[in-house]
Amino acid sequence: MRRVVSLFLPRWPTDRLRRKNPDLSGRDKPLVTVAAQGQRRVLSSVDETAERLGLSRGMTVTHAQSLIPSLVVMDATPEADEAALHRLGLWCVRYSPLVTPNPPDGVFIDVAGSAHLFHGEAALLDDVLERLSRDGFAAKAAIADTPGCAWAMARYSNVKIVSPGRASEAIASLPVAALRLTPETIASLHEVGIERVAQIASKPRASLHLRFGGEVLLRFDQALGSVQEALTSLIPPEVPSKELRFAEPLADAEDLKRVIARLTELLCPELERRGVGARRLDLVFMRVDNLAQAVRVGLSRPYREPVHLAKLLEERLVLVDPGFGIEAATLTASWIEAITERQTIGRHVALDGNEVDVTQLVDTLGVRLGEKSVFRLAPVQSELPERSVRKVPALHPAQGLDWPKHLPRPARLFVHPEPIDAIAALPDHPPRLFVWRRQQYRVTKADGPERIHGEWWRSDAEINLVRDYYRVETSDGARYWLFRDGAAGDGGKWWLHGVGEA
C-alpha cells in the first residue's frame, strides 16, 4: 500500500530569499515578492510578518506600500523558486527514493518502503519538519494513502496522519479547493452551492462531468485512490544506479529475487570502481500501470558484496505489490561511503583475539527487526551505576572506556532501582532478609558495603546523595545487588538495583 507524504511550503519564495540573502535574515521587516499582472504589479508571495500586518497575495504593490511604508519588495523569480524546489526534492531523497517536486510550493514523498528506517511515520514527519524549521523554512506535512489526500490534509487540515483506508472520511469536510482544482472550477462549484468535498460525493457523476468537465471527478478519484496517480522519482545524476527492463511483465516472487540478484551484480562493480560501498540501497519497481513500488534498506557500514546486498533486499519484498506485473526495476546506492581496504585471513586459520566481522549479521537483523532493535551496551564514565551504560549502534567503535574490573556488577542492572523491605542486624550490616515483589528472600551470604556518592557537578540535589551497595546471596542460590540510600537513623530506604553476578 502506498503512503505518500505531502510537504507544503507556504512561504517558499520569501523563506528562500531570506536564507539566500544575509541582509534579509532578520524578520523584523516584512518581505514580499511581486509579479506583473497585466498593467499592475501585485504581490506574488508574502512572508509571515507581512501576512500578520494584513497583506495578502494578489494585493497591488501600491496598496501594500501605503499600508506598510517599510515593506521590503523584491521581484518574483518563479523559475529560480522551481529550481530550488527541485534541489529540495533531491535533499528529500534521504527519506525515500520516490520523491516528486510539486511546484510551486510542495514536494511528494512516497515513504511506504522506508518509513521503518525512521521509526515510523510520525517520527519521519517530525524529522522533516524539524530540519526545515531549523533552516528557516515554514513547512507543514501530512501523510495518506494517496498524493491527493495528503496534499489536501497538509494545506486544509491540522491532521498529519490519515490512517490507511480512511481517505474519504478525512477529506469529506474539507473545502473543494482541497482537490487541487483550478480557481475557475472552484468558482463554478461555489455558484451552484458545492463548497465541500462531501457534496461532490453526493452528486450524480454524469451531471458533474457534463457541467464541470472531467477535472472535478479526476481529482476526486485521485484523492480517494480510485484512479492511480503516478509520481516520477528524482535520482541524483551522480549516484551509482542500474536499471533493468523486461520484455514481459514480472509478478512472481522468485523472478523478482533473480532481478535483485542481477541488479546487485551490476551495481557492485561500479561501487568497486569508485572505491566506495553502499550504506543505503533503494530498489524501485515500476509497474505496468505506471505506479512505482519502492523498498529501502540501510547498512551498518559501507558494503559492496552482491550476495549480501541481494539478501537484504529480498527481506523487503513482502512490501512490494506487483499488481498486474512489473516492467522495470532500478537499484540505486543513494548513500555511499569510501571503503578502506584491509587484509583478511581465512576463519579456520584466524589467530586468537582477531576481530570477527559481524557486519552481515547486524545488517540482516536490522532489516528483520528494525535498526533500533540491534545495539550493544557501551560503558560511560559515571559514578552512578544506572548512568554508567548506554545503548550504541552494534558496530559503534570502542571509546577506550571499561567498567572497573575490581568492582563486580550484576548481570542485569535495572534502569530504575525497585524499592524493597529489608531487615538488618546492625545499621552498617547487610540485610538478613528482604521482601521484593511480595516475595520474601533470606540472605545467607553478603559482601559490602561499597559506598557510591552522587555526582555533585550535575545538580545540587546530588551533593548529599550516598548509597551503600551490598552483594547478597539468598538461600535458593540467587544473587542480588542491594543498596540503602542513607543511614537507618536518617530514614534511609532499601532498594534492589540488579540481579545475578557479572
Describe the structure.
With 502 residues, this protein is of the alpha+beta class. Helices cover 28% and strands 30% of the residues. It contains 14 helices and 19 strands. The strands form five sheets. A six-stranded antiparallel barrel has the order 14-15-16-17-18-19. It has a four-stranded antiparallel beta sheet with strand order 5-6-1-7. Helix 6 packs across helix 11 (215-224) and helix 13 (306-315) runs parallel beside helix 14. The two termini are 47 Å apart. Residues 345-352 have low confidence and may be disordered.
The beta-strand count equals 19
Largest sheet: 6 strands, antiparallel, barrel
- Estimate the helix proportion, in percent: 25-40%
Strand content: 25-35%
* Ends distance: 47 Å
Give the averaged pLDDT, no decimals: 87
Seen as an oligomer or otherwise, the chain set is: single chain
| Contiguous helical run count | 14
Unreliable residue runs: 345-352
**What would you report as the Rg, rounded to the nearest angstrom?**
31 Å
Q: For the largest sheet, list the strands in their spatial order.
A: 14-15-16-17-18-19
What gross morphology would you assign?
A: globular
